[in-house]
Write a structure and sequence with these properties.
6 strands; 7 helices; two-stranded parallel ribbon; mainly alpha; 224 residues; two-stranded antiparallel sheet; 2 domains
């Protein structure tokens, strides 16, 4: 949001003949062409998004795609009912004094863009994790680790669908609260031989199931 009382920024400017009827066109034109606004919005969006990705490694892994509309998503629950997941909205505000920017001082603009990135990131991640918690709880994809990260990892690995790369390595990722990071790292580093064996068995079993599902895929046959 830009606040300014400078002429030519927020108000139309009079140009040309004071009598537009004699010229066949209106002499009142916008001093801020739409292409300027479009370029400003693109710059703002891309800059804010770049700051958000630089400040949060998890957000940085989330892909984005511009669409005209975002419909609700439907997830089938274990009881056969449908869960409707609605898109969430985020909003951020900021005010930039135009006169310093015209004079070449962009410190105020930089501060506002940084603030908008922080606002959007906080709202986005809070809404995203709340949505994830709701979906996983209602679909039954939750595990109570009871403070034991190693056993929690085994239980989650057993429940989850797993994909593998061309080398057969699993795509596993764990997101941990910063408050629990050191404890979780220590527990995972201290996996017992039995826990390591169980984890390897789960991964091997799921790798074979994944490969079998890939083998069952067939290319469409075309006939003349």
């Amino acid at each position: 949001m830009v606040d300014s009382s400078a002429p030519g920024i927020g108000e139309p400017a009079n140009v040309g003949s004071p009598n537009p009827s004699t010229q066949g066109f209106s002499s009142i034109v916008a001093a801020r062409p739409s292409e300027y606004e479009d370029a400003t919005m693109r710059w703002m969006y891309e800059t804010v998004d770049a700051l958000m990705r630089a400040r949060d490694p998890f957000y940085a892994q989330i892909g984005s795609e511009r669409v005209e509309s975002l419909p609700d998503m439907t997830i089938e629950l274990p009881d056969g009912q449908d869960m409707v997941v609605e898109p969430f909205r985020v909003a951020a505000t900021g005010t930039v004094e135009i006169d310093p920017a015209i004079a070449g001082d962009f410190d105020d603009l930089h501060a506002v863009v940084s603030s908008i990135a922080d606002q959007r990131l906080e709202q986005t991640m809070r809404a995203l994790f709340a949505q994830m918690i709701d979906i996983t709880q209602r679909t039954g994809n939750t595990v109570d680790a009871k403070g034991d990260a190693a056993e929690g990892l085994l239980a989650v690995t057993e429940k989850m669908d797993m994909q593998f790369d061309d080398h057969g390595d699993p795509a596993l990722q764990m997101i941990v609260s910063p408050a629990d990071e050191h404890q979780v790292r220590a527990q995972l580093a201290a996996l017992t031989p039995d826990q390591q064996r169980r984890l390897a068995e789960i991964i091997n079993r799921k790798r074979e199931a994944y490969r079998a599902s890939r083998r069952r895929r067939r290319l469409p046959r075309y006939s003349h």
